Amino acid sequence: MFAPNVPYSTLLRPELSELKSYVPDLGDYSIRLDPNEAPPFRNNEIAARLAEAAANIEWERYPDPTALQLREALAARCGALADEVLVGVGSDELISLLVTALSTSEGPHNPPTVLTISPTFVMYKMSARARGFRVLEVPLDESWDLAEKSF
Fold first, then answer.
1. Nearest of 137, 130, 97, 94 to residue 22 by alpha carbon
2. Is this structure's pTM higher than 0.90?
3. Pair 128, 99: CB distance under 8 Å
4. Kind of pairing, strands 113-118 and 134-139?
5. pLDDT in tens, the chain (151 residues)
6. CA distance 146 to 151
7. DSSP string covering 38-71, please?
C-alpha cells in the first residue's frame, strides 16, 4: 500500500518524466509518417474485399490469440515458418513487444540504445524511453536523406 501524502511521481522511473502525450499534427498531408498511417486504397477491389471480410467477423468474440491462421498465411507468403512470424494489434504493440524483448538489465548507467531517424513514427522513441533506453535521433534533411551534420 502507498503511504499517504507521498506523490506518485516519486515512485516512477525518472526517464518517464521526459515523456509527453503524443498529439498528432492533423494537417492535410499526403504522407503522414508521425502517426504511421497507410496511404488510402487506390484499388477499389481491395477495399471491397476488406469490407466483405469485415462483414463476416464475429465482433463479439476475441480472435484466435495465437493468430495461427494469419501467421501461417504470412509465413507461406514470405517463405518462413509460422513460429517465425510475430503479429500484433497495430505497430504500437509490435514495437512495444520487440523493445521489451530486447531490454537488458545493464543498469541505469549503461542503458541499451535505440537509433532512429527524425521525423518518424513517435512510438519508436516513446517505447524505448518508457523502458529506460537511450534514444539517439538522426535528423533527415529537406530531401528526406540523412542529414550530413548528424554524423
1. 130
2. no
3. yes
4. parallel
5. 556 677 777 777 777 777 777 777 788 877 776 677 777 778 899 889 999 999 988 999 988 999 999 999 999 999 999 999 999 988 899 999 998 888 776 666 788 889 999 888 888 999 998 888 889 999 988 888 887 765 5
6. 9
7. PPPP--HHHHHHHHHHHHT--TTSPPPTT-HHHH
